[in-house]
Amino acid sequence: MITSQEPPMPPDTEILKALAAIIRRVMDDPEVTITRETQAIDVKGWDSLSHTFLLIEVERSFKIRFPLDAMITLGNVGDLADMISRALAARHSK
Amino acid sequence: MKRPVIFFFGKCQSEWLALLMTRIPAVADQFEIMTSRFQWDGTGFTHQSPIAEDLWSRAAFMFVQVIPGLDQTPFLERVPRSCRVLRYPALALRPVWPLHRENPQGGTQRKVWEHFIPFHDLLGVRLSRQNLSPGEAMRRYLETDLSGLVDLDRLAEVHFHECRNIDVLSDIQVTPFIERHWQTEQLFLDLAHPSNTLIYKILSHLKACVLDDPFLAGEPEPLERFNFCQETEVPVHPQVAEHFRLRWAFPGRKYFMLDAFMTFEEYLERAFEPVLSRPIRGRLAHLGRPRAEQAARQGDPIEAAWILSRQCHGRWDLEAMTLLEVALARMDPQQFAECCLAARGIPYSHFQKDPVPFVDGPSSRIERAEAAAAKGETLKARRILEAGIRNFPGSDALRNSLAGLQGPAPMRCGIPGKTAWVARAERARTEGRRRDAVRWLTAGMLRQPGGQILERLVESLGDLQPSERMPAYLEANSDAQRTGAKQPPNL
């Protein structure tokens, strides 16, 4: 049930937009194009070290917590956006 | 006959392990050791150099670093079925350096920091772009509340979870050890470069595998304090140190960077003011002394003596030697022995000059020397064997081969070599002229600086009463000054 204090869940495109901004900030590349299909290999600087920092930053920005095991099985930005969406839904349903 | 090959695949940590492996005579004698480095080019791992087919077919062991994103299949498919594969983890410690990134974007931002640390400091770079004065940038950096930038506890939780997952894919597990000790011991020098402790831990397992002796796997690492992998330690942000209660990153701790010891604040100052961050060679002694004093105050005389002895290594610093002498005089015999071991560090730069994709063990050196001697190149043969003895001092085969070498000994250029200084000092020591021994060795340090002489010097110092040591130094130093350190002193 959504409480009155909780902000409404953003639509998927909003999540992707916010996620792209976080990726650009964490990877320090304001120009990089981010789509659902983007993979770590497509973004310069997105390696295993920065991946952890990115996920922490995503959690902080969206005020969510990912299951630890789910964090290491992401294929692309779309998967990450979906995981955010699920985490937000779980938070709203509490 | 061509020897079987041990392959190391991975990043820098693999290279260090390979290099340490080459220092084990029993391994270097039986195997060729080959490293193949993978480099992250920003979008993926690239294999730095192609490997000849002949080498693949001779692979006996393959030690592969488990790196997320690195597909091991292409090279695992190429080795014979008999090749034994062992996987070990790529080591990192993100929580302690939460602002650092390995692969920064854009050349211009990187320039601010790349001269200084191998990593990109997000906050530092962000502030550097704001056209602030260095002082103002530094003030803002220090005033920034890190909890507003990163959730440190969550970072640690996620990081160790990932490490445990890498451990699962590895044959050697180190995460439990790191989790137990990372707050009390300095296990890493920066985000992705471990200190000796962890490297030796992995090495002991690899050695056990190659020599087929499982007992070697639990072998403790040497007492050597020198960090084999790299010398630079990236200072830890005080807020991080406080948050995680890092005992080794105590307030005011000085870290070794660019030939200088500096606190976190001094490091920031130099990072924001690039002109200050040039290596301050020659001032090492001056900068190292406070760190040695700090270590002594922290109740670690061995660390203090190590710092001082390193200052003396490769350069002459009378004051540091005096302090070293004082530090040694205060030690009990056990501490003294540990200090001698600790002082035996070999600067990493020595290795960088001579990367060793293929390493000669004693027998292949003898083969090469014999080939050179057969061509009449006696001096070359002698050099090969002498270098071999330096690397493998315990090898009788090399010594015998050198002794049996026919032909002229190399011409000396008037200044005795290291061995000569040591031999003279030993003779003086045997004859009871202990002070002369110290003078010979001190003189040797001036002209032929090296770990061997320093070690003997430290030993000889132990023969003298503290009151006798200083005059011996001064006499040798005065001789050296008088002769411009070009001629042996008048002993």
Question: What attributes does this structure have?
Answer:
heterodimer, A: mainly alpha, B: 491 residues, alpha/beta, 24 helices
SSE order and pairing:
The complex is a heterodimer of chains A (94) and B (491).
Chain A lengths: L11 H15 L21 H15 L14 H17 L1
Helix pairs in contact in A: 1-2, 1-3
Chain B lengths: L4 E6 L1 H11 L2 H4 L3 E9 L4 E3 L5 H5 L1 E8 L6 H4 L7 E6 L10 E2 L5 H8 L5 E2 H7 L5 H10 L8 H18 L5 H7 L6 E3 L2 E2 L1 H15 L27 H7 L10 E3 L2 E3 L1 H9 L11 H14 L3 H12 L5 H12 L3 H10 L5 H5 L9 H13 L3 H14 L4 H8 L14 H13 L3 H14 L3 H13 L2 H17 L9
Parallel strand pairs in B: 1-2, 1-4, 4-5
Antiparallel strand pairs in B: 2-3, 6-7, 8-9, 10-11
Helix pairs in contact in B: 1-10, 6-7, 7-12, 13-14, 14-15, 14-16, 15-24, 18-19, 19-20, 21-22, 21-23, 22-23, 22-24
Q: Provide the residue-averaged pLDDT of chain B.
A: 71
Low-confidence stretches of chain B: 104-112, 222-226, 275-285, 313-317, 340-359, 410-415, 483-491
- What sequence of helices (H) and strands (E) makes up the elements of chain A? HHH
Please write the CATH class name of chain A: Mainly Alpha
The separation of the N and C termini of chain A measures 6 Å
- What pair of chains forms the biggest interface? A-B, 27 and 33 residues
Strand content of chain A: under 5%
Task: Give the helix proportion of chain A (percent range).
Answer: 40-55%
Based on secondary structure, the structural category of chain B is alpha/beta
- Tally of structural domains of chain A: 1
How helix-rich are the residues of chain B, as a percent range?
40-55%
Structural class of chain A: mainly alpha
